């Protein structure tokens, strides 16, 4: 389903013995929502910027969003995410965005990682969120004072032991 405005979801992920709660704001990428998107990524620690691997224009729009994001949040880690991998994997559509071009761009902007996913099959989705949580946990251990994410609002919880914690 397409996002209209913004949608919110939460997911718990265990990393290195700690349970992290990822709060995810899914903002619509169309131009008509551009002016309101800034409120969702204010003070963001990490952001996933998605593009369709079968649509070159969507990658150009992703570059625009990254530029917009980094102009306000210079320390935000960007994770580039190619979507609809299932379409090219099953031969349904040709790839329009070269993977190496994406990794070159990621190096240029110092993005944390590049992922390709499929919402339809779930391929790569867990790995993407796990990497974000893992990076967050590492930074918290070395004393990063960020208050979580704007796009990803994360909290550490103590892992409960037994039935009564």
UniProtKB/TrEMBL annotation:
Q: Which UniProt keywords apply?
A: Nucleotide-binding
Q: Which SUPFAM superfamilies match?
A: P-loop containing nucleoside triphosphate hydrolases
SMART domains cross-referenced by the UniProt entry: RAB (SM00175), RAS (SM00173), RHO (SM00174)
Q: Name one GO molecular function term.
A: GTPase activity
Which InterPro entries does the annotation name?
P-loop_NTPase (IPR027417), Small_GTP-bd (IPR005225), Small_GTPase (IPR001806)
Write out the similarity annotation.
Belongs to the small GTPase superfamily. Rab family.
Record's PANTHER family? PTHR47978
Name of the protein in its database record: Ras-related protein Rab-24
Native species: Oedothorax gibbosus
